[in-house]
Amino acid sequence: MRLKLLRHAPPVTGGRLAGRRDVDADCSDSTVCARMRHMIGDPGQVICSPAQRCLQTAAALGLDIAGTNPAIWEQDYGDWEGLRYEDLPDLGDLSPEQIAAHRPEGGESFDDMTARVLPELQALTDDTLIVAHAGTVRAALSLVVGPAALSFSISPLSLTIMRNTGSGWAVEAVNLTAEAGCSP
Fold first, then answer.
1. Which domains occur in the chain, in start order?
2. Which residue from 50, 78, 93, 102 could staple onto 106, CB 3.0 to 4.6 Å apart?
3. What is the spatial distance between Cα 83 and Cα 79, in angstroms, rounded to a whole number?
4. Model confidence pLDDT, tens digit, residues 70-120
5. 76 near 108, Cβ under 8 Å?
6. Residue 177: is its pLDDT beyond 90?
7. A Pfam family name for this chain (predicted)?
8. Contacts of 28 (CB under 8 A, 6+ apart)
9. Ordered DSSP codes for 93-144
10. If you average pLDDT over residues 36-48, what whole number do you get?
């Protein structure tokens, strides 16, 4: 089973952390959207986060959504939601395991999010495209590398591809973008 994970197009946040805030996506570059749609190829079934930015991205790429799943929504950053990026706390001295366990006040940790997301991904039996968030992609990558998945850069409108081998998960590609002209 092949799992493709597409992060939504650039969120319109005014330089602020979106997390669970329902913000729009900038899907205005039709050339990049067309390239990404070509890169995706046959998506299999398409499951989308219910976030507006994900639904807009799926529509801009002409994807036929089989359904939405609230379990694959982005991490809830609690009191950090809506903060300017430069005002977010610096967690740089923490290990990946400590960062994964860190829970912002009123929110959830990466570990909490993976506990919500991973059962949904592991239950898939058919080739699937998930249209979701950077956190969702990192949660999927944690199936292979654990909390070190937090070190991956996941660009807006990027594609990550994994395969369930039957005895575990393998990563085929991470953070493929249409601007780079890559194809899986």
1. 2-177 (3.40.50.1240)
2. 78
3. 8
4. 999 999 999 999 999 999 999 988 999 999 999 999 999 999 999 999 999
5. yes
6. yes
7. His_Phos_1
8. none
9. TS-HHHHHH---TTS--HHHHHHHHHHHHHT--S-EEEEE-HHHHHHHHHHH
10. 97
